[in-house]
Each structure stands twice: as structure tokens, then as C-alpha cells.
Design goal:
The complex is a heterodimer of chains A (259) and B (230). Chain A is built from nine helices and ten strands. Chain A is α/β, with parallel strands linked by helices and 259 residues long. Chain A is 36% helix and 23% strand. The termini of chain A are far apart. Chain A has a six-stranded mixed beta sheet, sandwiched between helices. The N and C termini of chain B lie far apart (44 Å). Chain B is mostly helical and 230 residues long. The chains are: A alpha/beta (259), B mainly alpha (230).
């Protein structure tokens, strides 16, 4: 049973990322196949979130190569911190969506408007069509009845579910989750995880998830990467990482978080 | 424009009543100048604030210098410059337009600082969410940032509107016939300044009181989180 080897959708090659004197990613190599669900775990400050933020073009990087769907993040004659034109970056962003730790919904817009805005403005969908899609997505995350509410009227879990619907409305190939449940009260974590779990069954959607929910990581991911000091220290199938970690740092970390 | 008007200086009250029509003509000019000037200040101030946040160093730096220059030189000097110096370089503008532009330019330097403070207060997560949704920078300003800062900057903008209204008499020095200029002319004819100047003062007071009340009301009506455009 051999599977045809697909070219990677995301490819980091020798990427270095520094904030001043602080090196966050160091000679970083990482590949993600189309449709793969990858979880990034590790101590805070190990560079997991930075990987997502670089992919979303929220942070530039200093060295190395990064490509997504065959497009390089650096243009040959690019200038500025991203070494690429805004037009090129927007083309890359059109394939990527992101869900943030602090939701970042637009507080002045209703739930529906939050989900409709980008497809209408950026993709140029007619408002009516964008609204139909938005309502479908809100139904999927179980919040169709809240469409006329404002974010401040929702719980954290509900806000995060709206944020997921908002990201999906742009039909990204890659969806990045940056600690999506870390800012939630414990009793609200479940509802958000169950929405993400549902997405994990979407065959075409590539997911990168930074989380501290180890049980959940084990359940939904195809691959788990353990980060330490700006590098992937160990990676593999969740079963292998969680039951038989090889690297002492991985063992140490898992022992501390799984108690 | 004074010909054909009769004024009655018998008592202060009849005097005031007889010159009221002329003063009210001046009032319309005052209002137009303030409205035009403030529209320029609101628009240009936002442009300055945005340019100042540009990632291109030369753009943000140049804008900072221009804003600082506009803020730190007297309105009167700017006004004279536009009215008397520009024609030497082939740019001749009507007095009213010159006045409105001078007011607008000076106040755009003030409003740009208000905008800047408002924009800085928008959480970084809002910008990042906008980027993640692939909104362009212009779309981010128009749909996300500006609607959110409107309730926050309203009080400061209101103060500048009132200040600008009170400063419109300066335009009389470049022959704009606003209220103050007309009151002055009436005084010159009748040798009786008390009534026209008091009248103008009272009208200014009423005007600014109305503005303050309106702004106060608006502040209460506007949702705190801001209003999306369209």
C-alpha cells in the first residue's frame, strides 16, 4: 500500500526568526502535507505560535525560505520587512485563515456582519450570498440564533466559535489555531474543541493547532510536533509521542503537563 | 453690501433689531467657513494620521514635519501666506476658500493627533484579525479601525469644532465678510460698537452652546463599540 507522495503544502526551510537579540526560531525546518492536521506542543516561548504568525504574515522572518502552495513568502526583488509586495502577501493570505487566542472579533459589528464582512469586501461576494454562507457556517458552529447579537453579548466560547466561522467564511486551505481555548473558562473549552473536532474530519482542510489540551491533540491530529527552544525536538504520530516519547525533553514536558 | 440697509440707533434694542439681518448674513458665511474648514480638518487629519503610521520611513517622517509645522505656526501667518504669497506663484484663491483652507489645514494638524491617539488605542488583535481575513490596509481603516474610534474621539473632535467656530473671525483680515467683519463695518459707520459686537458675541455663544449640546447628545446615542459604515 503505497500512497502517492504529494508535494508539501507548507515548507519551512532553514528559517530563522529573531526579535532583536532573541532568537525564536533557529534553522527551522518543517513540512506540512495537504489536508494534514498537525498539533504543535511545547513550553511557552518555544516558538510554536511564531510559526503560525509567520505563516499568517503577521511576523516577518530573517533567514531561510518559506513557501505555501508553491508560493514563496519572499519575492526575488522584494523589499520591506516581508521582502514581498503587499499584493503578493495578499495572494498568500487568501489561502490561510487564523483563529486567535483572544478571538479578536470586531466589537462594533453583529455576529453575522463579522462573518460576512471579509467575503463581501475581499472576495467581492454579493451581500446576500455572503449572508447565506455565513448563516450556514454559524449553524455549523451552533450559533445561528445569535446572528444579530454583538460579540460583547456572547460568552468566550461563543465568541471563539464565531471566530472560527469567520475564518472559514474565507474558505482557506490552511487554518491556523493559536491556543484557541487558552483564554476560556474551563467549562467553555469543550464547545470550542467540539467545533474544531468537527473540522478535523474535513479532508481538504489543512490544520495547524497550537494547544495545551494534550488529550485533544492526541485525538484529532495526524502528527504532533514537540517544540523546544525554537526547534522541533521530536515529532510523530500522536500515539508514539504521547505513549513512548523518545527525547528526554519531550518526556519531561509531557510529565509536567499530563501530571 | 451695506447699501440699502437702514439702521435705527434710537435705542440699543431697535439698533440691534435693525442690524440683525446683516449680521445673520454674516452668520451664514461664518457657518459655511466653519463647516468647510472642519470638513477639511476631519478628512485631512485622518490622512495625516494614516500617513504618519506608514511603514515607509520617509512618508511618516515627512508627515510628522508637516503636521508639526502646521501646528506650531500661527493661523494668521498661514492665512496671510495663502492669501498674499501664493498669488505670486500663480495660485489665486477666492478669500472664502483661502479662509476655509487655512482653518482646515491648521485644525487638521490638531485632529490628526486625535486620530492618532484613537488609532493607537485600537487593540493589535483587531489589526491582526483584519490581516488574517485578508482585508487591505484601506479596508482595515475604513471598516474596522475608523468605526471603532469614532465614539472615542468624538469629545476631542467636538472641542476642536467649537474652537474653530470661535476662530472664524480671523478670516475677516483677508476680507471674508463673516459676522465679525460686518459688525466691525457697522461700527465704523455708526461710531457705535457696543451693540453690534455684543450681538456677535451672543450669537457665537448660542452657536457654541448648540454645538456642545449636540455633541453631548451624539455621544449618548452612539454605541460605545462604534458603528460599521454602510
Amino acid at each position: 500500500m503505497t500512497q502517492a507522495v504529494k508535494p508539501p503544502l507548507i515548507q519551512f526551510t532553514n528559517v530563522a526568526k529573531r526579535f532583536g537579540a532573541l532568537t525564536v526560531l533557529d534553522d527551522f525546518n518543517f513540512e506540512v502535507a495537504p489536508g494534514e492536521k498537525v498539533t504543535l506542543i511545547g513550553p511557552s516561548g518555544s516558538g510554536k505560535s511564531t510559526v503560525l504568525r509567520i505563516l499568517m504574515t503577521l511576523e516577518p522572518f530573517q533567514e531561510g525560505q518559506l513557501s505555501l502552495a508553491g508560493m514563496s513568502y519572499h519575492e526575488p526583488n522584494g523589499t520591506g520587512p516581508f521582502k514581498a509586495s503587499e499584493r503578493h502577501l495578499r495572494q498568500i493570505r487568501s489561502h490561510v485563515g487564523m483563529v486567535f487566542q483572544s478571538f479578536n472579533l470586531f466589537p462594533h459589528m453583529t455576529v453575522l456582519r463579522n462573518v460576512v464582512e471579509a467575503p463581501a469586501r475581499v472576495l467581492g461576494l454579493p451581500r446576500g450570498e455572503a449572508e447565506c454562507r455565513a448563516i450556514d457556517l454559524l449553524a455549523m458552529v451552533g450559533l445561528a440564533d445569535k446572528k444579530d447579537h454583538y460579540p460583547s453579548q456572547l460568552s468566550g466560547g461563543q465568541q471563539q466559535r464565531v471566530a472560527i466561522a469567520r475564518a472559514l467564511a474565507m474558505r482557506p486551505r490552511v487554518l491556523l489555531f493559536d491556543e484557541p481555548t487558552s483564554a476560556l473558562d474551563p467549562q467553555l473549552v469543550g464547545e470550542v474543541l467540539s467545533v474544531i473536532r468537527g473540522l478535523a474530519h474535513e479532508h481538504d482542510l489543512t490544520m495547524l493547532l497550537v494547544t495545551h489540551e494534550m488529550r485533544f491533540a492526541r485525538e484529532v491530529s495526524d502528527r504532533v510536533c514537540f517544540f523546544d527552544k525554537g526547534r522541533i525536538c521530536e515529532q510523530g504520530a500522536p500515539e508514539a509521542i504521547f505513549t513512548a516519547p523518545e527525547h528526554p525533553r519531550t518526556r519531561e514536558f509531557l510529565a509536567s503537563v499530563l501530571r | 453690501m451695506m447699501y440699502g440697509f437702514e439702521w435705527d440707533t434710537a435705542t440699543p434694542l431697535t439698533y440691534a433689531w435693525s442690524i440683525l439681518p446683516i449680521i445673520l448674513i454674516g452668520l451664514t458665511v461664518t457657518l459655511q467657513a466653519a463647516a468647510a474648514g472642519f470638513a477639511i480638518a476631519l478628512g485631512l487629519g485622518l490622512v495625516f494620521a494614516m500617513l504618519r503610521r506608514s511603514r515607509i520611513r520617509t512618508v511618516s517622517w515627512t508627515t510628522a514635519v508637516v503636521v508639526e509645522f502646521l501646528r506650531d505656526t500661527p493661523l494668521l501667518v498661514q492665512l496671510f501666506f495663502l492669501y498674499y504669497v501664493l498669488p505670486d506663484y500663480g495660485v489665486t484663491l477666492p478669500a472664502f476658500l483661502t479662509g476655509a483652507i487655512a482653518l482646515g489645514l491648521q485644525y487638521s494638524a490638531y485632529t490628526s493627533e486625535v486620530y492618532r491617539g484613537g488609532i493607537d488605542a485600537v487593540p493589535r488583535g483587531q489589526w491582526e484579525a483584519a490581516t488574517a481575513l485578508n482585508l487591505s490596509r484601506m479596508q482595515t481603516y475604513r471598516d474596522i479601525v475608523v468605526p471603532q474610534i469614532v465614539p472615542r474621539i468624538l469629545p476631542a473632535m467636538g472641542n476642536y469644532l467649537v474652537a474653530m467656530i470661535k476662530e472664524t473671525p480671523v478670516l475677516s483680515v483677508v476680507t471674508v465678510l463673516e459676522m465679525m467683519a460686518l459688525a466691525n463695518m457697522i461700527g465704523e459707520r455708526t461710531f457705535e460698537y457696543l451693540v453690534p459686537l455684543t450681538l456677535v458675541g451672543v450669537i457665537f455663544l448660542i452657536l457654541t452652546l448648540i454645538c456642545s449640546a449636540g455633541l453631548h447628545r451624539l455621544q449618548k446615542v452612539l454605541p460605545k463599540a462604534g458603528i460599521p459604515l454602510r
